[in-house]
Amino acid sequence: MKKTYRHYLNNVLEKKYDQRKMEFHFAFSGDEALTYLNGNMHEAVLILSDINMPGMSGLELLKQIKEKDYKPPPMVMMITAYGDQENYDTAMRLGADDFLSKPVDFPLLKEKLLVYN
Description:
By secondary structure, this protein is an alpha/beta fold.
């Protein structure tokens, strides 16, 4: 059975590193993510966003997050199957703090999450 990113974050990282107080919340679209952020601004430290999502793209979500005055400003890591230079350049220009291509290297993701935590 193929493990999903949600499974990995919830069941592997949250249990193994619970002493570091990692807690994950999931949104199924950019609009849902913005709704969560607007109600929980002080809680969002790091956002993992796919570029390809229903409704607004992850790049549009990134742009809206970076244009808002969230305190503290959350870090945004883009995760995408589109590992091309154009998407990378666009994400970085819009303010992405990191960029990972699918299939995600979970040990690398774990290292990055621990650094951001």
